[in-house]
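Appendix B. Chain record.
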Amino acid sequence: MPQYMTLFGFVPAAWAELAPDPKDRGHALGERLDRAGVQLVDLFQAYGGAYDGVALYDAADEATADAAATIIHAVSPGRGFQTIPLQSGEQPQDAVRRVFSSTADGHDAGSIGNGAATTERVLLCR
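Structure tokens predicted for this chain:
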């Protein structure tokens, strides 16, 4: 099943509301996501960066992932919000193979962009 990551950040008012009662809110979020057909994998707090938290979850398709992101955003009113589909196993390698194989019009896809004779190199880290 496809996996997604939603990054979220709280506004100061949300921190003020959460601070008096610090607790793990992952279970409650997991229950709400389950009702939408989404499996919460894990929920992290991330201090000191652009976002305050990260939710990892499995969703059958993009529409289901959009529903999950909406739920996460609703329960964590904040200043920042981004959802990213994650790839594992052969997915990233397959994507690069597709990009750098010959295109249908016969042009080398290795020189992406304005048709310049340069070839971009891609390093995949796993």
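Further analysis of this model is presented in Appendix C.
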